[in-house]
Design a protein that fits this description.
Helix content is 29%, strand content 27%. The chain is globular. The chain starts with 5 loop residues before the first helix and ends in a 12-residue tail after the last strand. It binds S-adenosyl-L-homocysteine. S-adenosyl-L-homocysteine binds next to strand 2, helix 5 and strand 4.
Length: 217
């Protein structure tokens, strides 16, 4: 793994201040982002991009989410230590590490084999509880649920019923839902005693699409 020097730490601190100025208030989230070296998720030649508040290509047509988006989604989840969290869209593994740094037990699903294989090997270098799965996230992980939290990090055309079923009562799901052609509405869904979902709507975001089935497209 690439080193994490004083220079990297300094750049990360500035990024965290930038996120704070953009309205991220949860100190646990900001701390976790300060502690996870984002540059090691990118090729070393892209260091200058690692600590800008931008999404960045990670190969296989996919992106590592923008730091603000990671911070925003993670804040909505209200993570507590030892919670079981299901993530759809492992991608680079960065978001999974931020969740795990906050003490969550992370179960993360990726549909692209190449990305899954690369990221699984890479994540083994971290001391975190993160289990990765090559599967279609629309179906969730019935044998590992129910989950305290579910996070979808791709643009979802609908709210998958399997994921609602795998969420605990009182549990929170954060999902960027496609309600417009070119962007998504961020939803926070909280499962009620009677099984219905309380729905809160946040701003507009742009994600790569959540696709069905496995593939390398
Ligand atoms: N969380 C990632 C960013 C993910 S980008 C990170 O921190 O880097 C979205 C990811 O979702 C992509 O890797 C894409 O391949 C994956 N994806 C898309 N549809 C999926 C599905 N149905 N099941 C699982 N993963 C999916």
């Amino acid at each position: 793994m690439q080193e994490d020097s004083y220079r990297h730490k300094g750049m990360r601190k500035n990024m965290v201040e930038d996120l704070r100025n953009k309205g991220i208030k949860d100190e646990n989230v900001l701390n976790a982002i300060n502690n996870v070296p984002r540059h090691v998720f990118l090729d070393s030649s892209f260091l200058d991009f690692a600590y800008q508040d931008k999404a960045f290509p990670i190969g296989s047509g996919q992106t590592i989410s923008q730091p603000f988006t990671v911070a925003f989604q993670t804040s909505l989840l209200e993570i507590k230590r030892n919670m079981k969290v299901l993530e759809i869209g492992t991608g680079s593994g960065y978001q999974a590490c931020v969740l795990a740094e906050m003490g969550a037990k992370v179960f993360s699903i990726e549909r692209q084999r190449k990305l899954y294989t690369k990221t699984k090997a890479f994540l083994a270098e971290f001391p975190y509880f993160i289990k990765t799965f090559l599967a279609d996230g629309n179906k969730g992980l019935p044998t590992y649920g129910p989950f305290d939290r579910i996070l979808i990090t791709a643009a979802a055309p609908e709210i998958p019923q399997a994921l609602i079923d795998q969420l605990k009562v009182g549990g929170i799901m954060v999902i960027p839902l496609c309600e417009h052609d070119d962007h998504q509405t961020m939803l926070r869904l909280t499962k009620q005693e009677d099984g219905t979902m309380k729905r809160e709507t946040y701003g507009d975001f742009r994600f790569v699409p959540m696709l069905k089935n496995l593939g390398d497209d």
